């Protein structure tokens, strides 16, 4: 549709020599990580800029952990914080394309934890971490800012500082749009890819991060998969309004196509939610949404209208009425056998087999190392 397209941050759908590399998937500009495990480290020794590796001043140490054949890392020399570089590149992308239609996918990595750092950091001889640094080393941030003297556990200070740093950069991006007189004609989406985590020493309950929702990242209950979506579009999306429409990331691409005035590809599951954004009625209650996970607890889940079903390996299917029970505390499967039957029939057809991602209900965990080896040139 004539848009300049960019992705800055974390891309996890293909390494440089695979068909999934971002420059082979329609993006004119890329800066960041191609590997989701390397993205755990906020002080890498290089990042990708388009098809070239850009060296940084940091010094990495590869750690032999359980993560993807030991490709995770920590750093013994930490100078350039990747998030700050991403924010700088985002501002530059907007500036360079100010006179053309553009689409920017800004995939910040904060507040993800560096699990490898917790698993066993190997500091250099002159950078031995202090006791406080060691306590929060899984939540890497240059400084704690206003949280330095809070009477909180060190990981909570780190998490709060990471989120505040991101919020400030979002503010800088919005200010750039205003400065360039683009904010009135730009639609901005802000969301997260999962619920709160308890990694890197973080306690997701300390700040009540999941509110009334059950569980956290890595679970199929809504605490793991339900996230807010904030949309700003002056004159088109009424400010301060709330919508309880249930939609998914798979709906973003057809929505973006609708916004750009082009046809979305066929044979996809997502639908445009532009009517919802514009305040019009849109009934999506008849379709199914599907999730599966087989890294911690193997399981599958589905949403159909107000009904949510969750089934973990070795357990019976649980059914929840999300209009009455958003915390998924009351299993009503025994009361609504016809609903269980309908959702179970859908679940039996919801996926295709994959050599890299075994059937969750088989009880076999995903073998991430084999995926990595298969995709590495």
What does this structure look like?
The chain has about 375 residues and is of the alpha+beta class. The chain has helices spanning about 80-95, 115-120, 130-135, 155-180, 220-225, 250-260, 275, 335-345, 370-375, and strands spanning about 5-10, 30-35, 45-50, 50-55, 60, 75, 100-105, 190, 230, 290-295, 300-305, 305-310, 320. The chain is globular. The two termini are about 35 Å apart.
What is the structure about, briefly put?
With 377 residues, the chain is α+β, with helices and mostly antiparallel strands. The protein is built from 9 helices and 13 strands.
Number of strands: 13
Contiguous low-pLDDT stretches (5 residues minimum) are 65-69, 121-127
Largest sheet strand order: 4-3-2-1-7
Rounded average pLDDT? 90
Give the N-to-C terminal Cα separation: 33 Å
| Series of secondary-structure elements, N-terminal to C-terminal | EEEEEEHEHHHEHEHHEEEEHH
Give me the secondary-structure category: alpha+beta
Discrete helix count: 9
């Amino acid at each position: 549709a004539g848009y300049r397209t960019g992705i800055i941050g974390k891309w996890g759908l293909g390494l440089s020599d695979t068909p999934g590399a971002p420059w082979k998937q329609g993006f004119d500009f890329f800066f960041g990580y191609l590997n989701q495990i390397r993205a755990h480290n906020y002080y890498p020794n290089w990042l990708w800029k388009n098809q070239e590796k850009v060296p940084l001043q940091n010094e990495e140490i590869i750690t032999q952990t359980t993560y993807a054949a030991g490709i995770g890392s920590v750093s013994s020399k930490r100078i350039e914080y990747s998030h700050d570089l991403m924010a700088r590149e985002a501002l530059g992308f907007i500036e360079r394309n100010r006179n053309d239609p553009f689409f920017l996918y800004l995939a910040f990595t904060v507040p993800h934890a560096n699990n490898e750092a917790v698993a066993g950091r190997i500091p250099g001889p002159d950078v031995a971490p202090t006791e406080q640094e060691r306590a929060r080393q899984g939540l890497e941030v240059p400084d704690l800012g206003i949280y330095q003297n809070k009477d909180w556990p060190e990981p909570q200070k780190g998490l709060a500082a990471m989120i505040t740093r991101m919020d400030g950069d979002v503010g800088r991006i919005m200010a750039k749009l205003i400065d360039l007189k683009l904010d009135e004609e730009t639609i901005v989406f802000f969301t997260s890819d999962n619920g709160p985590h308890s990694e890197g020493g973080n306690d997701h309950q300390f700040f009540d991060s999941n509110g009334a929702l059950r569980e956290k990242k890595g679970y199929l209950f809504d605490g793991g998969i339900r996230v807010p979506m904030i949309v700003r579009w002056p004159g088109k999306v009424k400010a301060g309004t709330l919508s309880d429409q249930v939609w998914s990331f798979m709906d973003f691409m057809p929505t973006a196509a609708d916004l750009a005035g082009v046809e979305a590809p066929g044979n996809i599951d997502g639908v445009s939610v532009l009517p919802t954004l514009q305040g019009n009625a849109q009934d999506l209650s008849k379709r199914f949404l599907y999730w599966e996970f087989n890294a911690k607890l193997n399981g599958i889940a589905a949403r159909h209208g107000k009904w949510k079903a969750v089934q973990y390996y070795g357990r019976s299917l649980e059914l929840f009425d999300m209009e009455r029970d958003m915390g998924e505390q009351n299993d009503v499967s025994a009361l609504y056998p016809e609903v269980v039957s309908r959702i179970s029939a859908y679940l039996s057809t919801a996926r295709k087999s994959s050599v890299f991602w075994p059937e969750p209900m088989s009880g076999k965990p995903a073998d991430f190392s084999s995926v990595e080896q298969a995709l590495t040139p």
